[in-house]
Amino acid sequence: MFCLRQHHVFLFSVMAPAIVVPGIVHAQDGEQARTLDAVVVVAERAVTATKTDTPLVKTPQAISVVPSDLFIERGARNMQETLRYSAGVNAEAYGLDTRSDGSTIRGLDPVQYLDGMRKVYNFSPLPRTEVYTLDRVEVLRGPSSVLYGQGASGGILNTVSKRPQFTQAGEVGVQIGNFQRRQVQADITGPLDDSGQLAGRFIAVARDSDMQTDHLPDDRQVLAPSITWRPGDRTEITFLGLYQRDRTASSQQFLPVVSTLHASERGSLDPSTFLGDKGYDRLDARQASGTLLAEHRFNDTVALRSALRYLDADTTFQEIYPDTYSSPLDPFIDAERRVVNRNLYAIKPHIRTLTNDNSLQFNFDTGAFNHTLLAGVDYTDFRQESSSAFCSAFSDPADCVVTPIDIYNPVSSGVVAPAYVEDPDLRNTQLGLYVQDQIRYADRVSLVLGVRRDRARSETEGSEAQTDEATTFRVGVIGEVGKGVSPYLSYSESFLPVAGVDFYGNALVPVRGRQVEGGVKWAPARGMLFTANAYRIIESNRPTNDPEHVLFSTQTGEIRSRGFELEGAYAVADDITITASYSYNKAEVTESNFPNEIGKQLNDTPQRLASLWAAKTFEVGQQASLRVGLGGRHVGSTLSTGTTHSLTTPSYTLADALVALDWSDWSLALNVNNLLDKTYFAPCRAFGDCFSGNSRTVVGTIAYRF
Fold first, then answer.
1. Half-sphere exposure (Cβ direction) of 633: Cα atoms closer than 13 Å
2. Contact 151, 495 (CB under 8 A)
3. What are 565-581's pLDDT values in tens digits?
4. Is residue 418 part of a domain?
5. Is the pTM above the cut of 0.70?
6. What are phi and psi of 486, to 5 degrees?
């Protein structure tokens, strides 16, 4: 287990209750690390929902927090896998997919943030988040544009980086797993001077690995230095550096439905089947970023916070994939039904992003009412320069050649790659002003009011620039009625500018969303939290695959997402942990320029999600303990509606397991995900392709803490 603490620290994705047991706790919100007494502490605070340090029982919206200790205990290797047990989240919406960390919340797409600032802006692949650099993942469910501006209807996935600590700690570790996985990693932090003003941290990861898909690497190098300066009790400035380089390729091979889910007597293709070209397919990505986080408290009433990040990234993505789209029900071009045509797609984006968020917080009273007033301004500037290439079996042989392939005996040869062509430059800027007031009465009732004004400008070279302005609102109330029961009701809106153009060169318009949510949070005792909520979301202008031009996006008219979520967590310090969740979501297309999908469940969206995780620690010696964990995840069936037919992908249920031994300063863990090695798809689509799920993964980890 990779943690800098002397014992495990758990925080459960149940409206973010954190069960903390003895050990050194990572400092958050400027607090110095400390050693806790041997008691159970239920963390009741989070920052993503309000941008202030607010107790969860005073936050009238669903938010979940998953700390590094918990998602590593469950064997998460990427950001998607950290969310597998979170209510309302389809963590791996498209199965094993190295192109992005694609997940959905309440059937809708979230926006990915890092340290409170947006990270991902369009569909161009960036290096996927390295979970070893993260302290926690926060999931804010539902629209949230009042504070973030660029927030999707589904919500926000905000990953929080590990920060320097003023307590000396460190670890080095080695991982070995199937698919030839070999990884070394180190995390060292502590004070840098005798005065206690400077602290540093250095994180490094190096991985040499194959992956489930044949012939493809999954290699990575990460360097993440950081430093914190505390010149006084009221000021803290932190710089976070990150350099990451990935060498891989697209794990998804878009295997034909007729040879997988609807396989004939010849049998289903193995999920590891590679239908590309070993000499051409690649996804090489490089990213460098610097983040500056500053906070100054003028006094007990006024505090200033500022966050600034600059990111520079280059990617080369090249893939050859089977052409199932021309004839989804019969893609074969030979009488024996073995050979299919292939397409080639490639893009080389260079992305530069500047993000900045500045806010003032005022704490004051007006009579019986206590106010936490937040006023801020944020700005983003996203720029992309790229070149791309495309080739199919019908392209002019003088320009390129992409040969067919026998999918049952895949050998690729004779490919002549096309030349890259410059794409139109993209630039998206957004300026937002926001104000939020959290009003507390009698220390029992909290009212949250917020308003924001945004101005977003989208520029695509060769097309007329598009400017959009929007005002979004938020209101919510939550109150304790006794015995730890806190019902709440809220309304929120979202506004999300979208980069790029459709097939006809028209700029994509912003996605809009609005939600009504009600629920109850019950914390009867420390180490226990149960929640229930129901919601209704309306989203308009959702980008989806264009059925007529599959490499482009179109925008669906309107989606209505309704459902409810149940969650529960129970923990006894250093002993038993149990979490459970159930979600029902009916995401229905209500307006569309594609008539076949109107009135039907949103494509690729399961209605039901459920999970259960249980772990227990056994003392096996004076300095040793054994922890055993077992979990189950259920993802319901999905529907895909095409121009001529619809397709249902069956539900699936998977099991995960953990065995971990802690002895003195050493830790040895074995994680097995998809314990029974179940073959499943997530999902298959009416386009004619299937997305393979993750097969069984076995990873052993040994770490030394100092």
1. 25
2. yes
3. 998 888 887 788 899 99
4. no
5. yes
6. -130, 95
